[in-house]
Design the sequence.
């Protein structure tokens, strides 16, 4: 069965500091990996995705993520956090093909940004 | 290009009642998936609809049912509401012809009293 673990429920960083959010997955085939962000009361916005190719992927809002197959990880990073980055972040895994298949999400990491 | 829309935004029901939530898919997308997101948790897959038929289902009881219409919009129906059904219900649309990229709507917040 596929699963996603986000070990950190809450993370607090100072504005301007670097950020790394951890994601570990379990998946029986080649995974298609995603990071989504959710602001309070809002839906999910896709930050970035990875299926193949360069293991370091760039996303929107200055985020990047690195796929490490040997560690089953897909950690999200940002060099300098802005106050507007405060939100909940979700890692997800799924098959490449969509038909009949769903995404499996982690429990999320709530990011708080100190001024 | 119109994104995924959902209605209503918020809903309050009492235990035992029935509820219908609605979703309009993004232009060009003919697949709709529904997710339940309880407070403080990640979204959980309920089911997916493609060509007006259920095309995959998560671990939810039969009182969760759905429909998809010829214009690809979709409904989620929940019968015999329970307190634990209180959650944010998210709809996502996608195209079955390409990679599994799902675009989410803003969600419907359901409160069961």
Sequence:
């Amino acid at each position: 069965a596929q699963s996603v673990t986000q070990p950190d429920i809450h993370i607090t960083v100072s504005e301007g500091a670097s950020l790394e959010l951890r994601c570990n997955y379990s998946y029986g085939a080649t995974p298609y990996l995603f990071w989504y962000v959710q602001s309070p009361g809002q839906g999910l916005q896709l930050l970035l995705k990875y299926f193949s190719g360069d293991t370091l992927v760039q996303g929107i809002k200055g985020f990047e993520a690195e796929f490490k197959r040997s560690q089953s990880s897909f950690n999200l990073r940002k060099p300098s956090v802005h106050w507007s980055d405060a939100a909940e972040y979700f890692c997800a895994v799924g098959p490449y093909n969509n038909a009949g298949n769903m995404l499996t999400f982690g429990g999320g990491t709530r990011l708080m940004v100190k001024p | 290009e119109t994104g995924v829309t959902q209605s209503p935004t918020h809903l309050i029901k009492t235990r035992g009642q029935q509820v219908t939530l609605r979703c309009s898919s993004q232009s060009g997308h003919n697949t709709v998936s529904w997710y339940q997101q309880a407070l403080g948790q990640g979204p959980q897959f309920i089911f997916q609809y493609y060509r007006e038929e259920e095309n995959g289902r998560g671990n939810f009881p039969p009182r969760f049912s759905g429909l998809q219409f010829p214009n690809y919009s979709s409904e989620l129906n929940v019968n015999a509401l329970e307190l634990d059904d209180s959650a944010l219900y998210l709809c996502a649309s996608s195209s079955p012809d390409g990679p599994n990229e799902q675009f989410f709507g803003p969600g419907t917040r359901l409160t069961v009293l």
In short: Chain B has a mean pLDDT of 92. Chain B is about 0% helix and 50% strand. Chain B touches chain A at residues 4, 31, 33, 35, 40-45, 48, 50, 55-56, 58, 90, 92, 94-96, 98-107, 109 (CB under 8 Å).
